[in-house]
Amino acid sequence: MIKLKNITAGYNKVEVIKNINIEFEEGSITSIIGKNGCGKTTLLKTSANLLKPFKGEIRLGDKDIFSIPKKELAKKLSFLPQLRAVPNITVYNLVMHGRYPYLGFSRTPQKKDKELVQKAIEDMGLNQYINKNIYELSGGQRQKVYIAMLLAQDTDIIFLDEPTTYLDINQQLEILEIIKRLKEMAKTIIMVVHDLNNALSYSDKICLMDRGEIVICDTPQNVFESREIDRVFKVISSQVTLDDKTTKQYVFNLK
Ligand code: ADP
Fold it and tell me: How many helices and strands (H and E) does the chain possess?
């Protein structure tokens, strides 16, 4: 469980997110949504202790997050940023990066590290690319390599900043299904998602932000029914039931 209490954070003394009180539940997917520039990434980075807040407290279980040494924290939470340069590295070596918090002083991977890296690569269906350089892969495959790296890091909490942006629709759905599998492995997922339908269809909780504040953080159904998405994004949202008569999807029109 990760809990933010009265968090205010930003850059160069300018407050970007204000008085955030939120709890991310274990074994669930929470998506943070909101207009561009409303502070979603800032909230994600602050929650993951990558940005020190101006005030407030973050509890990770019964501990104050700021008191946990960096290497220890990297065994508890992992973070996949949105914009990443494509490094000159093989799939295997990039996934091994996930094991760094566990390596001893010599930084030499042990048998267990190698096994976990191999398993993460297999889990993501990347066996055939194991020795390929990641710049030879498609955007969707590359995203799977990064998720394999997170699997190798083996943290209970995973932060993802726009994991599906720039992917085509097939790759987006594939990554979202993988994220669902991470949840089934009892991981806590907190992500920023641009596509509102994807966010509402795949999450247990939706946190809607506006101008640095949380407007509502609730189940997709309750957030949809609150009509706050319509107010914040200036749209009219509708819910449609697919032919299977159970799956709900969301469509948005201009007001
Ligand atoms: P979102 O993820 O919702 O698009 P961000 O959290 O990235 O929003 O940004 C919120 C605000 O903080 C924006 O006005 C942005 O310009 C500002 N900001 C983001 N990152 C930095 C930074 N590193 N330095 C200064 N200002 C920043």
Answer: 9, 12
